[in-house]
Amino acid sequence: MRWAELTWPDFERVDKKVAVLPVGVIEAHGPHLPLGTDALMALYVAEKAAEEAGVLLLPPIWYGSTYVLEKFPGTISISGETLYRLYKEVFMEVARNGVRYLVVVNGHGGNIDALKMAAKDVAKSTYLNIVLVNWWIDLAKEARRKVLETPEGHAAEDETSEVMAAYPHLVKEIPRDADEWAEAKYAVYGARVYAMMYKKAVQGYPSRASREKGEAILKAAVEELKSLLEDLKKDVLPVSVK
User: How many Å apart are CA 3 and CA 7, to the nearest integer?
Assistant: First the structure.
């Protein structure tokens, strides 16, 4: 059920217990993937799982924080402070509309801090339970281990395979020299290191990508997210108590 496509009388009648919110970013993803990759992939996984589980799907939040890749044309980066306020207000409105469990399917690492802060603050003042799923980290771990040959990264083998499977028409031909890999011994912040690590807006080995790998990852990711949504419908939280 797509939240945005319901009339208000329809919305009043539907089961609002569980809802899913995809979030991403608009940023460079190498010369071969679309700028909206992170949002598109979060939407793909969220949409499929929400449909199969029969829960509400909110419209995606396309914008995020991506200071590292600001130098590349087409990138749109929102400050962490603005994102925090946006996430918080959306969460508050979701709670006001009667949702008890909100699953945020995040597709971009730069959003994590703002999402966590907003979720914690909203949880203090409402009855909304917010589950943050960083889908490329939390879902399909075993499938990734089985099919990937190179480290996961940015516009790398993993992400390129996933877009090949979900949106093949949006993938451009991968240049022969697209592979790019750099490692920092410590957490380093600054324009110099960003320039060193992202010369082509790639971090990894897209040359090893394939649609088949992406299909295996996405099948597992959707199934795992669907299982979470079905558990929440039964008031089962993803928490193990020993």
Answer: 9
Say what the pLDDT of residue 218 is.
Answer: 98
Hey, what are 227's tokens? 């299982």
The C-alpha atoms of residue 49 and residue 140 are separated, in whole angstroms, by: 13
* 2 occurs within a structural domain: no
Query: In the block, which residue shows the tokens 């980290």?
Result: 137
Q: What is the CATH number of the domain that holds 95?
A: 3.40.50.10310
User: How far is 62 from 77, CA to CA, in rounded Å?
Assistant: 11
pTM over 0.90: yes
Angle (nearest 5°) at CA 49 between 102 and 99: 20
- Residue 132's domain comprises 7-227
123 within domain boundaries: yes
Neighbouring-strand partners of residue 133: 105
Q: Output Rg (C-alpha) for the chain, integer angstroms.
A: 18
